[in-house]
Design brief:
The structure holds 3 protein chains of 3 kinds.
Chain A (H helix, E strand, L loop, with lengths): L2 H15 L4 E14 L4 E14 L4 E7 L9 H11 L7 E8 L9 E13 L2 E13 L3 E11 L18 E12 L1
Chain B lengths: L1 H19 L4 H15 L1 E3 L22 E12 L13 E10 L4 E8 L4 E11 L2 E3 L6 E11 L16 E12 L4 E12 L10 E12 L4 E10 L12 E9 L2 E8 L6 H6 L11 E11 L5
Chain C lengths: L7 E3 L5 E6 L8 E5 L8 E6 L5 E5 L2 E5 L4 E3 L10 E6 L5 E5 L4 E5 L2 E5 L10 E6 L5 E5 L4 E5 L2 E5 L10 E7 L2 E6 L2 E8 L2 E7 L10 E6 L6 E6 L3 E6 L4 E7 L6 E6 L3 E6 L2 E6 L5 E5 L4 E6 L5 E5 L3 E4 L4 E6 L2 H5 L4 E3 L5 E5 L2 E7 L4 E8 L8 E6 L5 E5 L4 E5 L4 E5 L10 E6 L3 E6 L2 E6 L12 E3 L2 H4 L4 E6 L5 E5 L4 E5 L2 E4 L11 E6 L5 E5 L4 E4 L4 E4 L10 E6 L4 E6 L2 E6 L5 E6 L13 E3 L4 E5 L2 E5 L11 E9 L2 E2 L7 E2 L6 E8 L8 E7 L6 E3 L3 E4 L5 E10 L9 E8 L7 H47 L2 H17 L1 H21 L5 E2 H19 L3 E4 L4 H6 E3 L3 H12 L8 E8 L2 E7 ...
Parallel strand pairs in C: 61-67, 69-71
Antiparallel strand pairs in C: 1-39, 2-35, 3-30, 4-5, 5-6, 6-7, 8-9, 9-10, 10-11, 12-13, 13-14, 14-15, 16-17, 17-18, 18-19, 20-21, 21-22, 22-23, 24-25, 25-26, 26-27, 28-29, 29-30, 31-58, 32-33, 33-34, 34-35, 36-37, 37-38, 38-39, 40-41, 41-42, 42-43, 44-45, 45-46, 46-47, 48-49, 49-50, 50-51, 52-53, ...
Helix pairs in contact in C: 3-9, 4-5, 4-6, 5-6, 6-8
Classes of the chains: A mainly beta, B mainly beta, C alpha+beta.
């Protein structure tokens, strides 16, 4: 059975060529920022989960709302979870869809892409096109993006008393490195 | 022959690999998230809106590094009639600071106009209600406080010791957040008197408190608090404290309004020295407000 | 009325019948407007702006096209992108799409890149549309559609069900957005952020999956014409969503663009232009034009053909050569007629030719020979209510042709018709009117076509008019009969009476060619060298050169399909609007061949006006989309000191912003070279100024309100011209504003008033001072010459002389010094404290002699203080006088007067020992002191009296 090692080798080569085209992460970073006249609120999470299927150009991202930290006070975090995001009822926010651009994932390099998909925050779906910088490397994809989320788009009302403390326009930034499975 | 078979198997494996790629990414992440949730402990947060239920402590602690200035008022009895403007003419007040030393440990002091009291307390969280990896049905805290009455001694004929006007209260607080809107806590309490008014009175008053909150909207909840004193371990002539109130959240602060039969705002005054009777209309109106200051520098 | 005998002669003849095909070339006249040199770069797309001009994009950028030249907008920053789509939304905002996927907007005549937060792709933009909600859609070649909804960009591609991501064109129709893709048609909706897509492809009956272009039908809102890549043309009816293919290009060349006209579809294909009849779907024309990519109609119904290298203009559906004739045929045309079955009849040599339409543009030609003298011309044709064709000849009378039975008969016996030279045959539903050299005949006709016999009534007009030479007769809808005479002007027969209109009625013309009644009942007639008249039942309106006619010799009139009268002249045909009288020139005649000016050679069947030229028979028709007839005037930009201003700039200018200029244009694509302007600046001059330039500058305008008005015309008649206006205001400089003038007057008055008041006060003060001074002098003198004082002084002196003569002379010296001081100083307003003290010292010396030790004077004033202060004179003396006067001065009760200075106050105090009998004194002295200090030192003298002391505080005047 001399050929067995070579067969195994060929299997691995084959398996290599048939390698999964799915890239994932569990530790993507996401931060948001509300710049209201009277208060600046920053919070971030390192629990962004993401997956990109290079064969179909599809992607999905998901984040647990209660994983955001760094508010101005614990009470603010509590309000964020309880009053605005209702994170017990709606524990996660997601963005899933497809990349508009035709991309060759076998070519390493940095690309400006647009991701089209459904952004679901507070249980309200909004179709969005989100611009992103994507770096394709050997076995990994790095993405970096910033975009705006309007609270009014996601049925998150701002009570009159905090109008000066909470912006309707929330700036969101995310960075993630997805590793090939 | 075997090689051919192996080849077949390998190719099948290969094609299986190819098949396996055809997945819904969002579903995949969702499953993964669920799996993660199981491996993680999620501590229940915001069982109550603030660190006080009405008079007494709730299970909540002041955040680490946060200084909380609390100002509470209790007006006179409503049955004072128009002459007393339904109690609003007379008011007693307590102000004090709570400080979160660690997320689990809170300490504070206060001063009440009622009997010119000073009080200090320490509250420590023993257990946190959680789901996920560790499943804990309740949260438990212990609270100890000391109070001193600084009124002038009424009976100068007697030898008055400072220690005779010291009081201590010990509480175990067990709470559970049943749902987003409903939380209930039980507070077994011992109030220790160094000196009691009557020789027949016990030096340790034992009471069991029960309290809860029910949210009626995102920003408003109804709270209730009741302390049952064991009949064999209570001061004579006292009644049980019963309070009903609202927590109203006004953008970062909680404003508490309530009706109670206890004029005092320290453990020994409301647990063991309540004389009012709801049935007779000895009801007082009161409110608590607080303002938080962040002492710890934000990163 | 008398009976006429009718001889009928039947001809047996051989009808010469043959089929003739019209040559395709020449049916559409097109003219190269922008040739290779004039069109910079490669042309890509055009758009008719709501403002009236064309946007034209080439590889060199975006241009404004006014019909003659291109004016560039600012160039797009990169050479790599070409403009591939243009769109003007409901608000008139121009969107520009480029081949690299970028988008621009035209703002204040500048191309500004439009960059949404989502960013744009790199695929070429192929079209725009706007839905009912005002969302802008744009199509890309590769990324599907994008929707701009509330500042957010949404995408529709194959993932959302779009038939293909490669989209050629977009159209909003039937409340939906329709996209033409590489894979059929996608009908899209976007309501409340929900997308829905429905696809139609070959499976649903489309000829081809690749739909390259489409165009909405010009009339039916539910129909969309589709142009396929395989050369087919189809239509999609949204009512029932049926599609059918109506045409396939013989060469199979892809359809690049469709224009849907009134009756025709114009197709731009790779092989050139093709025109098909949109109801019969037959091909009318194919014309090879290299790389024809666009078809655009302007509001004058010209159709523009855009090739990549050149731009062509055609009259579109307006003017068409419907019958191409040979030279031989052309020479014999004196009249033409289009019968009820749309067969063309023309006069020919010794006969009449009938062309009847076969399929496409082929005709059957039938010759009806008439037995006429060799040189007789066939003059006129008329179809009566029964369908019988009446033929009038020069010298051989009248022939009747039955076009169905193909029979010919000659009418020989018309009373009084000797020469049988017919000039015209006209008629109504009841009568046929014939004019000949000898006069006019009327022949009643009725609706029964089987009628064999005709009667002719000779109208005796020679008596009434004085001439029998009648060119034309019109029996109008009010039963009036109008006679167009040769030499006697226009005559009407109304209620049995003839009336010839004379010059004083408003008709100067003598030779009238024909008469016409329009749909509003106005009577029009054309004349020899006298233009046209319109009679509205009461007055005549004359149209001549001044009203804009290009020629005064009008050969014929005809009613068009719209509210205008078609007038033909040798130079140029034109239209007159029935109501406004506006003249629209139809373009120089040379493009359509030499105009036939025979009086009868123009004919209208209500739908078309037919006229004859050296090329053949043309049909004129005004399509539905012919919206304007005259130049559309627009102010393109306004400049301040020759610097172009933003459109949004308010039209209020400061007084020194007074150099304004305007760029304007009159857009008239039919004949842009002819456009002339008149402008005026109301508020500056009320006279219209003529210009040919589209620019005017007004330097140094004085302040005021202005209205700049400009209008344009091609005929030279500006009466009904389209006008554009710009209202602006140059403000007065602030020093000429009413508020400034008012403020100035008020402040000057106030200042003057204040000065006068101050002066008055000063004078009053001076006067008072004067009086006080006089009074003081008087008082002092009075006191000093007081006999008691003198008496006492002399008594003292007497006693001193006895005691010590040396002392006595001292005393007298003091007394004289005292009086000298008083005399010297009393005139002055103020004196130094030292001088004043000298007086008092003299005084006390004198008094001391009298009172001895009973009188004490304490004076601690230093030399410095004596020089440093001043005060009114003689005050201290008065006070001392008073003290002595009112108090006991004795050894037991001595009087002490002491002086001291505290903070600029001179304090004078004495002890009180009041006399029982007060010496006479009016207290005037003290009051006098008070007044003088008030006037000079402007401070009150303070007087205090305790039980034992009398204190007077005098405010000293500090020197230096």
């Amino acid at each position: 059975m001399k050929f067995l090692p070579s067969l195994l080798l060929s299997f691995f080569l084959m398996a290599g060529s048939e390698q999964s085209k799915i890239y994932t992460t569990n530790t993507g970073q996401m931060r948001f920022r509300s710049e209201a006249p009277l208060e600046l609120i920053n919070a971030s999470s390192k629990e962004l989960k993401g997956a990109i299927d290079a064969s179909k150009k599809t992607f999905a991202f998901r984040i647990r709302i209660s994983s955001f930290e760094g508010f101005n006070s614990p009470l603010q975090k509590e309000h964020f979870n309880e009053n605005y995001m209702e994170s017990v009822k709606i524990p996660e926010a997601t963005f899933a869809g497809k990349i508009i651009e035709d991309l060759d994932f076998s070519k390493t390099g940095t690309y400006a892409i647009r991701a089209k998909g459904m952004l679901t925050i507070h249980g309200v779906e909004q179709e969005r096109i989100i611009r992103s910088d994507m770096e394709i490397g050997n076995g990994f994809i790095k993405i970096k993006s910033s975009f705006i989320v309007l609270l009014s788009d996601h049925n998150i009302p701002i009570p009159r008393v905090v109008k000066e403390k909470l912006a309707n326009e929330i700036k969101v930034e995310l960075t993630a490195e997805l590793i090939q499975k | 022959m075997t090689t051919k078979l192996l080849c077949c198997i390998f190719f099948l494996c290969g094609s299986f690999f190819a098949k396996a790629q055809d997945v819904d990414l969002d579903k995949m992440l969702e499953d993964e998230q669920k799996k993660d949730e199981k491996n993680k402990t999620h501590f229940t947060e915001a069982t109550f809106k603030t660190t006080r239920l009405i008079h007494g402590h709730s299970i909540e602690n002041t955040g680490a590094g946060i200084l909380d200035l609390k100002i509470s008022h209790r007006f006179g009895q409503l049955n004072g009639g128009l002459y007393e403007f339904f109690g609003l003419d007379n008011a007693s007040m307590r102000w004090g600071f709570d400080y979160g030393i660690t997320p689990k440990l809170t300490a504070g002091f206060g001063r009440s106009t009622y009997q010119k009291q000073y009080d200090v307390f320490v509250k420590y969280k023993l257990l946190r209600q959680s789901t996920g990896k560790t499943n804990m049905p309740i949260s438990v805290s212990v609270m100890g406080s000391a109070m001193v009455n600084t009124l002038k001694f009424t009976d100068p004929t007697r030898t008055n010791y400072f220690s005779s006007r010291l009081y201590y209260a010990y509480q175990l607080i067990a709470a559970r957040k049943f749902s987003e809107n409903t939380s209930i806590q039980i507070m077994p309490t011992v109030v220790h008197y160094n000196l009691v008014p009557l020789a027949t009175d016990p030096n340790d008053v034992i009471a069991i408190g029960i309290g809860g909150r029910q949210k009626i909207s995102k920003r408003v909840s109804i709270n209730a608090e009741y302390y049952y004193q064991l009949p064999e371990a209570k001061l004579s002539g006292t009644t049980n404290s019963l309070s009903i109130g609202f927590d109203i959240e006004t953008g970062g602060h909680v404003f508490q309004l309530h009706f109670t039969n206890s004029p005092g705002m320290t453990e020994r005054t409301f647990v063991s020295e309540t004389y009012g009777d709801w049935g007779k209309g000895d009801i007082l109106f009161g409110f608590n407000v607080s303002r938080v200051f962040s002492l710890k520098k934000r990163k | 009325m008398r009976l006429t005998f009718l001889h009928t002669i039947f001809f047996s003849f051989l009808l010469l019948q043959q089929t003739q095909a019209l040559k395709a070339q020449g049916i559409v006249d097109y003219k190269k407007v922008l040739a290779e040199g004039l069109l910079p770069g490669k042309a890509s797309v055009m758009l008719l702006s709501k403002k009236g001009f064309f946007y034209l994009a080439t590889s060199k950028g975006l241009f404004l096209f006014n019909g003659i030249t291109l004016q560039p907008f600012n160039a797009i920053d990169s050479a790599e992108k070409n403009i591939t789509a243009l769109y003007e939304n409901k608000e008139g905002q121009l969107w520009i799409g480029c081949s690299n996927g970028s988008l621009y907007k035209l703002q204040s005549n500048k191309l500004v890149a439009w960059k949404p937060a989502e960013e744009l792709g790199k695929k070429s933009i192929s079209g725009f549309a706007e839905d009912e909600a005002g969302n802008i859609w744009f199509a890309t070649k590769g990324e599907g559609l994008y929707i701009l909804h509330q500042n957010k960009l949404y995408n529709i591609n194959t993932d959302d069900g779009l038939s293909d991501n490669y989209v050629y064109d977009l159209q909003f129709i039937n409340n939906q957005i329709v996209a033409a893709t590489d894979n059929g048609i996608s009908i899209c909706n976007f309501v409340q952020q929900k997308k829905s897509v429905k696809n139609l492809s070959a499976a649903n009956g489309l000829t081809d999956n690749i739909v390259q272009t489409f165009a909405p039908d010009s009339k039916n809102k539910n129909i969309l014409w589709l142009g396929f890549q395989n050369g087919g043309v189809g239509l999609l009816n949204f009512k029932g969503q049926q599609s059918e293919t109506i045409y396939t290009s013989p060469k199979g060349s892809p359809i690049n663009k469709i224009f849907s006209g009134d009756k025709e579809l114009w197709l731009a294909t790779d092989d050139g232009l093709a025109i098909i009849n949109s109801t019969a779907y037959t091909e009318l024309l194919t014309e090879p034009i290299t790389s024809l990519s666009g078809l655009y109609a302007d509001n004058e119904a010209n159709i523009w053909l855009l090739g990549s290298a050149a731009l062509y203009k055609t009259k579109g559906e307006q003017l068409r050569l419907v019958l191409l004739l040979t030279d031989e045929e052309n020479n014999q045309v004196h009249d033409l007629l289009v019968d009820a079955n749309e067969n063309y009849w023309i006069t020919s040599k010794a006969g009449v030719l009938c062309f009847s339409k076969k399929a496409g543009n082929h005709f059957n030609r039938t010759y009806f020979p008439l037995r006429v003298k060799k040189n007789s011309d066939i003059i006129c044709l008329y179809q009566d209510v029964n369908g019988i064709i009446w033929v009038g000849t020069m010298g051989d009378g009248i022939y009747l042709i039955d076009p169905l039975k193909k029979t010919i008969k000659q009418i020989t016996d018309v009373p009084n018709l000797k020469n049988a030279s017919i000039l015209s045959i006209t008629g109504t539903k009841t009568n046929v009117w014939i004019t000949a050299l000898e006069g006019v005949w009327k022949s009643p006709v009725s609706g029964s076509s089987g009628k064999k016999n005709y009667t002719f009534n000779n109208i005796n007009i020679a008596q009434a008019i004085g001439s029998t030479y009648i060119y034309y007769v019109l029996e109008d809808s009010k039963n009036r009969v109008w006679f167009a005479t040769d030499g006697k002007g226009i005559t009407v027969l109304e209620n049995g009476a003839f009336n010839t209109f004379k010059e004083n009625d408003g008709v100067a013309a003598k030779v009238i060619y024909s008469v016409l009644e329009d749909r509003n009942g106005n009577i029009w007639f054309n004349t020899l060298n006298n233009g046209i008249y319109k009679y509205n039942g009461s007055t005549f309106k004359h149209f001549g050169i001044t009203t804009g006619l290009p020629d005064l010799n009008i050969s014929a009139l005809a009613l068009t399909n719209k509210e205008s009268v078609f007038c033909s002249t040798q130079k140029e045909n034109f239209l007159i609007d029935i109501t406004t009288g506006r003249i629209t020139l139809l373009g120089a005649a040379n493009s359509t061949g030499k105009m036939n000016t025979d009086l009868n050679s123009t004919f209208s069947n209500g739908k078309n006006v037919f006229f004859h030229t050296s090329n053949g028979v043309y049909a004129y028709h005004s399509p539905e989309y012919n919206k304007v007839q005259n130049p559309q005037t627009r102010i393109l930009s306004m400049s301040l000191f020759l610097k172009e201003q933003d459109e949004t700039v308010a039209n209020r200018f400061a007084h020194d912003e007074n150099n304004l200029s305007f760029h304007f244009a009159g857009f008239y694509f039919s004949d842009p070279e002819k456009v002339n302007y008149q402008y005026k600046l109301e508020g500056y001059s009320n006279n219209w100024q003529a210009t040919k330039d589209g620019f005017v500058n007004f330097p140094k305008l004085p302040s005021g309100g202005y209205t700049f008005k400009v209008r344009s015309s091609v005929t030279g008649n500006f009466e009904d011209a389209d006008e554009a206006a710009y209202i602006f205001n140059i403000q007065k400089p602030f020093w000429r504003q009413w508020w400034f003038i008012l403020l100035s007057i008020t402040s000057v008055t106030a200042i003057l008033f204040y000065i006068i008041k101050a002066r008055e006060k000063e004078v009053k003060k001076m006067q008072q001072l004067q009086t006080e001074k006089l009074q003081s002098q008087y008082e002092t003198l009075k006191n000093q010459v007081n006999p008691h004082f003198l008496f006492n002084s002399f008594n003292t002196l007497l006693s001193v002389i006895d005691e010590d003569p040396k002392k006595a002379s001292d005393y007298v010296e003091h007394l004289s010094d005292f009086y000298r001081s008083i005399v010297n100083l009393r005139e002055k307003d103020i004196i130094s404290l030292g001088d004043e003290l000298k007086i008092i010292e003299h005084y006390f010396f004198i008094q001391k002699k009298r009172f001895g030790n009973a009188l004490h004077f304490v004076n601690p004033i230093t030399e410095e203080q004596k020089l440093g202060f001043a005060m009114p004179p003689l005050c201290l003396q008065l006070l001392a006088e008073n003290a002595i006067k009112h108090n006991i001065v004795s050894k037991e009760k001595p009087l002490t007067l002491s002086l001291s200075i505290h903070d600029n106050w001179l304090v004078v105090q004495n002890n009180i020992n009041e006399k029982q009998t007060i010496e006479k004194g009016e207290g005037l002295g003290l009051q006098n002191i008070k007044n003088r200090f008030l006037l000079i030192a402007e401070k009150e003298v303070l007087i205090a009296k305790t039980h034992d002391t009398f204190i007077v505080k005098l405010p000293l005047i500090k020197l230096l």
